[in-house]
């Protein structure tokens, strides 16, 4: 297998893992919501106005994890329902703390999925950043990246989106192995596979 095809396989697998992680995290918040999780081709296609950034790190690589959010009424309503509060009376600190905890859960779930193939791993604490900060993300020079969005149904705009960008010291430092998780996505329908595999 050539380096280019090996990188493509890692990117494809990382994308499926990202979708599975985002779905698992959101179902933990709202199990009754029929989440529609799908791939986003480029970071520029993500429309949320802010994001929460965390990192997962090892001695050989660093993964920047982004949970993209909009601080709008729809998101406030989602958080209000999750916290049993009315959206219009939702305290701002409760609102932001919930989103930070949601990003923590998302990144922690991803870290657990990676642990079998990439130990040992460390994880940072979450922080809000403005979308304008992402204009410089290419300076990170990620070798692998993936983006996904979550809709409450296919006719609605994405409520959340997520990104992962992997930077390595040298090619081959980031490997994915020993992970199987069912994931429902448009990729699965295209390739006929309902199982997520990390190689």
Low-pLDDT stretches are 182-199
Kindly report the oligomeric state of this protein. single chain
Main beta sheet strand tally, sense and closure: 7 strands, antiparallel
Alpha-carbon Rg, integer: 17 Å
H/E series: HEEEHHEEEEEHE
CATH architecture name = 3-Layer(aba) Sandwich
Question: Span from first to last CA?
Answer: 13 Å
CATH topology heading: Chemotaxis protein chec
Helix content: 25-40%
Beta content:
25-35%
How many structural domains does the protein architecture include?
Answer: 1
Q: Helix segment count?
A: 4
Structural class: alpha+beta
CATH class: Alpha Beta
Strand runs, count: 9
Question: What do the pLDDT scores average to?
Answer: 83
CATH superfamily: CheC-like
Overall 3D shape:
globular
Characterization of the model:
This protein has 199 residues and is an alpha+beta fold. The chain has a single domain (3-171), classed as 3-Layer(aba) Sandwich (Chemotaxis protein chec), CATH 3.40.1550. Helix content is 34%, strand content 27%. It has four helices and nine strands; from the N terminus they run αβββααβββββαβ. It has helices spanning 3-29, 73-82, 92-115, 186-191; strands spanning 36-40, 50-57, 61-69, 122-123, 127-130, 144-151, 160-168, 179-182, 195-198. Strands 1, 2, 3, 4, 5, 6 and 7 form a seven-stranded antiparallel beta sheet that branches. A two-stranded antiparallel ribbon has the order 8-9. The longest helix is centred in the N-terminal third of the chain and has 27 residues, at 3-29. The radius of gyration is 17 Å and the shape is globular. Mean pLDDT is 83; it is low at 182-199.
């Amino acid at each position: 297998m050539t380096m280019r095809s090996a990188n493509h396989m890692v990117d494809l697998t990382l994308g499926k893992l990202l979708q599975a992680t985002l779905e698992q995290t959101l179902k933990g918040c709202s199990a009754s919501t029929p989440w529609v999780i799908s791939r986003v081709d480029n970071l520029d296609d993500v429309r949320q106005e802010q994001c929460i950034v965390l990192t997962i790190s090892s001695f050989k690589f660093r993964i920047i994890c982004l949970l993209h959010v909009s601080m709008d009424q729809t998101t406030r309503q989602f958080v209000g329902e999750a916290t049993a509060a009315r959206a219009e009376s939702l305290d701002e600190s409760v609102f932001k703390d919930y989103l930070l905890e949601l990003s923590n859960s998302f990144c922690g779930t991803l870290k657990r999925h990676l642990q079998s193939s990439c130990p040992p791993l460390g994880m940072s604490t979450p922080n809000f950043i403005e979308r304008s900060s992402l204009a410089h993300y290419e300076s990170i020079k990620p070798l692998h990246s993936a983006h996904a969005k979550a809709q409450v149904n296919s006719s609605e705009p994405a409520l959340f989106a997520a990104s992962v960008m992997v930077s390595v010291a040298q090619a081959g430092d980031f490997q994915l192995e020993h992970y199987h998780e069912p994931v429902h996505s448009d990729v699965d329908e295209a390739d006929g596979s309902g199982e997520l595999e990390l190689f």
